[in-house]
Every structure is written in C-alpha cells, then in structure tokens.
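Checked the freezer inventory, then went back to the computational side. Two predictions to log before the end of the day. The first one is the construct we discussed on Monday; recording sequence and tokens without edits.
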Amino acid sequence: MSRFPAVARPCRPGLSIRAVAVTAMLLAPLAGCSSKPRPPADGRSADAIRGAVAGMRGQGAAASAPSAPWVNLLADSTLSGWHNYSTQGAPVVGWTLSNGELVRSGRGGDLTTNRTYTNFELELEWQVGPGGNSGVIYRIDHSGERSYITGPEMQILDDAVHADGKNPLTSAGANYALHAAPRGVVKPAGQWNSARLLVRGNHVEHWLNGVKVVEYELGSADWEERRRNSKFANAAQYGRASSGHIALQDHGDRVLFRNVRIRELP
C-alpha cells in the first residue's frame, strides 16, 4: 500500500483567550441569581393561577360547544310529547293541534312537556283573543299544585284589555310579578307575536317581537328580593330547579301557538 505524506489540517477558528475572559466576566453576575421563581405580584400562588387559567379554558370550551339541533315540539298531531300538568301519562285534553296551530280548545290544564330541559332556547309564536291570558312556564318540577308554583313564567297577554296589562310587572313579556316588560312591544289581540326564551344556567332572557324585554339571573340578590316582595314569597320551590318541564298555560282563555321549537344548549 503506498503511503501519502501527512498533510497538516488547518485549525478551526476559536475564541481567543481574551474573548473567553470577557464572556466569563459578563456571565458571572448571573451565576448568583436564584432559579426560584418570583411570587406573583397579586399574592396568589402559582397553583391558584394555574387553576384559574384552567377554569377559564373550561368555560371557553363549554361556551364554544355546539348547540343541539332545533326540535319541532308540535311535530306530532297527537301531542304525544306533552301531557296536561295534573294528569301525567294520560292523553292530552283541552288542546287541539291542526295545520300546525295549537289551540286551547277547552278545559284541560297547562300543556306540559314530557321531557325536562336544563339549558335551552325556546322559540314560538303566540296569539290571544280579546282579553286573553296565558304564559310560558319553565323549569317546572311538578311538586306544586300548579305549574307556576315552581316555574317562572314569561307572560302572554292582551295588554290593552286584560287588567294585568295595567301593570308592567304582569304585562306581556314580563317575568310574571318579578320583572317588568316595556310598553309598546306586544301586538294586539288577534295578531301573532314572536317570543324567544333563553335559559342558560341562572341567566334568563325574554324576547318579544325581536326585542329583549327582560333579563335576569335566577337566585341573584336582586332576584331574591323581587321574589320576597311578590306573590311567590312563600313558594319555597319557586325558581329553584336547575332543570324541569316547560308548560303552555291554560288560563281559561283562547290562545294559539305555532312554530314552537326548542334547542338544548351546552
């Protein structure tokens, strides 16, 4: 095997002794710094902050979760998904569904959903005859003799004729007896009104003909004070259920509903 003469390899450029010394001088003060993290300025522990951040992330995930699809509550002409409040399990009486319109046609009691709902958005259209009175009652737990003993009510009314129309607390769109509705939103008897009821946790909104007429927080200090000063002061279970049935009130007057649909919210 032939041998080749050794070739000297060039040295790689490196740091000079002076450069190394300068770098060491610059890094020396950092060597004495503690690696222990400083406490937050507001005094909270790191664990507390991490928990708060995790909670906010959880709320964001819940808020961004998709809602369930809309469900037509009047899809079945036999009203198999409903019952009269006082007669669970029996066929519905006093209410008739024809051509998509639900009519209170006789004595029977509040038309109540078989299912219970927690967080939801309910949309419908309603119409009353002259002097008519009805309502949409929600989160009913069936422990009371009447649906409104436990469930708050979005009032349905002919404000112009019925006596309750003189008081904003009991006028159309109001949270009956607790939160007043503004004037000039409801349409007169014989005309269709659109209503929307939004219930999520303790937050509730009443919408009438595209206008948000009432907004409140169940169980808040303000709500509790209003309840104590109302006819529900001695109704221990009023507004307490976190989930419950929904009812269309039979107040003995002619009332019609159509396009009743609901979607459950996260």
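The second is the one RB wanted added to the comparison set:
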Amino acid sequence: MNIHVRYLIIGACLFMVGCTTNVSRFQMPDTDLTNIRLLYIDPSNDEHKAAELRSLINANLTQRGYQVATKDSSVVFGEGDYVLEIAPDWHWDITWYLLELRVAIYEPKNNTLIAQAHSQQSSLARKSSETIVNRAMVSLFDDPTESNGER
C-alpha cells in the first residue's frame, strides 16, 4: 500500500475520532421520574452564559410538561419537588460553545441523587447549545435506548 494512502487513512481516522459525541445516563434503582411535580433549577453564579443555558433547559423541561422554578433560600419543598443541578463546561474556540453538560436530579430533603445525565461533544463536533441540552434531557427523561436526542 502506498505511504500516502496510509497517511490519508490515519488522518481520516483521527478526524473521525475528533468528531465524537457521548451521551450517558444513570438512574438510581427503584426510582421513578414520573412522580416529579416541580423541578427547582439550582443556579450557579459563576457559570458562563448562565441565563442562556437556564432558558434552554427551562424551555425543554416545560415542553416535557414539568413545572420549573429557580431554587433560592426561601423555597419550602413539597411532595414531588426535586432539585435539578446543572454543570456546564463552556470552551472558547473563536466562539463560545458548550463542550459538556451534566444535569442531575436530587431529592431535596436528604440531597439524594435520583438520576443524572451527561452530554459531551468534541470541539470538532460543535453542536449548538440547544442540541446538547436536548441530548441530556432525552437521556435523562426518555427511553435510554434513544441514541442521540436529536429530533
């Protein structure tokens, strides 16, 4: 095989690895996400583009039929209330983009993790923030066998 063909094949393989995305999910055994009545989004003050991300997540959850509110110190939790924690990883490469998003649902009375989802992409994949949020939410709430969350 010609040396140039080998380099071309190696280069193509490396490029394809650079365009990967990953979505994962974890749910505690014997938990049921259908009994969620209200999700309180736990705000993070040091988060880049926090308002944009909370808006995307709020819209996604509302579309799924969940009530959403922002968690603060005055909140009194009731039955069916849970906390949604957001952990984004923003990166700069000519423009800001969301490289990774982790979302976790906690039972607020004892801070027990109920479920979490993780959506990650490489810098070459460069999907929109809305796509990354949708992938994480599909992974968290929908059929775990649904592959990438793009509808």
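For RB: The first strand starts at residue 21 and ends at 27. The beta strands are 21-27, 38-42, 67-70, 81-93, 95-107, 112-121. Let me know if you want it refolded.
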